[in-house]
Amino acid sequence: xxxxxxxxxxxxxxxxxxxxxxxxxxxxxxxxxxxxxxxxxxxxxxxxxxxxxxxxxxxxxxxxxxxxxxxxxxxxxxxxxxxxxxxxxxxxxxxxxxxxxxxxxxxxxxxxxxxxxxxxxxxxxxxxxxxxxxxxxxxxxxxxxxxxxxxxxxxxxxxxxxxxxxxxxxxxxxxxxxxxxxxxxxxxxxxxxxxxxxxxxxxxxxxxxxxxxxxxxxxxxxxxxxxxxxxxxxxxxxxxxxxxxxxxxxxxxxxxxxxxxxxxxxxxxxxxxxxxxxxxxxxxxxxxxxxxxxxxxxxxxxxxxxxxxxxxxxxxxxxxxxxxxxxxxxxxxxxxxxxxxxxxxxxxxxxxxxxxxxxxxxxxxxxxxxxxxxxxxxxxxxxxx
Length: 385
Fold this sequence. Notes:
Elements: H1 3-16, H2 26-40, H3 46-65, E1 71-73, H4 75-85, E2 88-91, E3 94-99, E4 103-109, H5 114-117, E5 125-129, E6 132-133, H6 139-148, E7 153-160, E8 163-170, E9 172-175, E10 180-184, E11 187-191, H7 199-206, E12 216-219, H8 228-235, E13 244-249, E14 256-259, E15 272-276, H9 283-295, E16 298-301, E17 309-315, E18 321-330, E19 346-347, H10 366-381
Parallel strand pairs: 11-12, 12-15, 15-16, 16-19
Antiparallel strand pairs: 1-18, 2-9, 3-4, 4-5, 5-6, 5-7, 7-8, 10-11, 13-14, 13-18, 17-18
Helix pairs in contact: 1-2, 1-3, 2-3, 7-8, 8-9
């Protein structure tokens, strides 16, 4: 019954162990499971033991290759990964900024999510969560309370200009939107929180009224990546047809080049600035690197996550899959950002807001302000009005 699994264990273990390592022999795993069964009987399931062996191989792959992300997934876990890659999330669908001593300010409410349904608004100052008051607490404790809340229904005490009120928000499924635009001090800012189905179309619609030749800020902060195909389609809106967007090292030494697709480019752009942070990861890092290399975009913010691996899945049996991270993204020049992340051209830290914030007002976004200033200077330096 378990012969197939033993074969998988042998195939993977041979690549990790030295030629003389006895642990590479599959009989050791089978014999160990049989010994456990004889000793413990029904207390331990053989399937769980073999999965644990596979998980040990995944952990060793992480260590040996220096590329995290190898894993063993059952059918439900694999479906959850695919669900995530399509932009599905679970939570309250809101972003916030911490104000030490006061609480958290809601900075964004995603459309059609639980927070919007409950009536939460941008600018709401949350002074307590699940009856834990934030007043007087430092940032670390506020983040700790917000990060450990797992109750199905979140109780928020919020302060608005008209006074204090309580809002109940039920956690639930929601879909992360893929593009939106707004004006900040006269400069168009497009926020790309994710690369998923419909990203290119959403971006095209968001910039439908963007004047040709005008400057642009692209906000990739907290963008954890997404599907490679979706990122390539978005990048093709900015990069000239047939120019390289990203390279892929499949581990064979022969790089594969992904190029911009023809016929879908946006109208000509002026100066482009890209906002990044430590949560900008994977295909989002590839996108930022492409715009810097091919469009001369200036990167502003903090070093990115350094996640360059592209996962793929090897189907096993009993609905298990082995998640491999053996393909590696590179920028158009063939340079890797793995582990180190992309280093911005202009470093701008996210500053804790120590000044009191009034209910209904957003704290200043220092990084965005810097990006807008950089974009304005670059646009004027290029001789644009």
